[in-house]
């Protein structure tokens, strides 16, 4: 019997041993007190918390619950978010930086308390988190981060060594953090939400908000869910509310491989502050301890051949721990805000009763839980001490202004480069299982040839703002380098902010008109 090599498909190990209930799609207009859009950690935790407060809640998910960024995480639960606290003190002051730390620590305590109280079997373990440097330049930055820990009173240890075979110069440990199996934990919260009367609708894409004659979420199929409050917990906000979130965040992809190591791994969760980033934590799979090796971050649509990133992580794992067996590989997409702090709260100053949570910068387990606690308080009228630091309406002149111009200059450059790119081969040159940008009757197009030889042709112009998408060989998707939209081989939207699919193209340009769907125009901003 041929050995199953699950890593050949980019699926996370978390879904392997977790059973999920299936939910119907929304088929009619309905009402609720609160509508939550997005079935990840923020949406499910917020729904769970509000149901416990006695609120009538509906949760809408565009595909399947727990299949987005939450299902593709490394699942560290920690307030140690890379090099962040020195920077936060500079931009938000000591009070703001301390609020950020306390909000994430409170999220960790909430998860631990929920797991203990309900005896949830989700492999929750307490570990120290560690960021380390291997170069003089980043050691200086780590020195400043340690000083920030001291100033804020964060329990830590600053050393010259770590208990794994990596030559480090300095290592900063944050004590008593955690990691877990995120889907086992969230499956419990989801079950409790449903038991309390909450309703879940899968494969129900929310596309807009109406405020007249009453507040309502509108779905892609035209159904309306009237409500008192709306919470956007989708990865990218499904509704912008004139908040210009597409211009205030950028998308990054990162990669993970799961291995059974040859060498024994002792303890701790590790993250290099040098480039390229390397992340290490242990996990449990089929009763064995395994390792999750992550890193290789880059802006969406700007990476080299994405298979390269998996190979780079394997090489690091092989050199550091040895690889007895490779088990899984997958990738994740994360949104980074202008000042690296998530946007959590009222979507804009003039849009009351509409809330958003986004921009977790790869730290969704703690930040997503902190967001749920904050959103619960705001919807139920309770004062939350962390609201100001996460407010989506905040704007710090430094670094927000610099990052805003930098992000949008990057967008402009991609617009120009994409339109002027020259390509020289047609879809006939593709091998089975291969995709790429091709020449299509003198114009730029995208093609993928599946294992049966069927060719899928798409117009590579992103339907959001007209940038040109690039081929992602690791995930077999079309990724936009401007705002992070992603599309399937058939052109369907996988990640926002785009809402319309890429135009499908016929193999022959003189095909009948009914075989050539009208081109979707870029969405208004």
Structural features, described:
- It is a single chain.
- With 525 residues, the chain is of the alpha+beta class.
- It contains nine helices and 27 strands.
- Strands 4, 5, 6, 7, 13, 14, 15, 16 and 17 form a nine-stranded mixed beta sheet that branches. A six-stranded mixed beta sheet has the order 8-3-2-12-19-18, with helices on one face. It has a four-stranded mixed beta sheet with strand order 1-11-10-9, with no helix packed on it.
- A hairpin with a 4-residue loop joins strand 10 (216-219) and strand 11 (224-226).
- Helix 1 (41-52) packs parallel to helix 7 (364-380).
- Mean pLDDT is 88; it is low at 1-7 and 512-525.
How do you describe this structure in short?
The protein is an alpha+beta fold. The protein has helices spanning 41-52, 85-118, 136-152, 182-195, 245-248, 306-320, 364-380, 387-390, 397-420, and strands spanning 30-31, 34-37, 57-60, 76-77, 125-133, 156-159, 170-179, 199-201, 206-210, 216-219, 224-226, 229-232, 249-261, 269-272, 278-285, 288-299, 323-337, 343-346, 354-358, 434-440, 443-449, 455-458, 470-472, 477-479, 486-487, 493-495, 504-505.
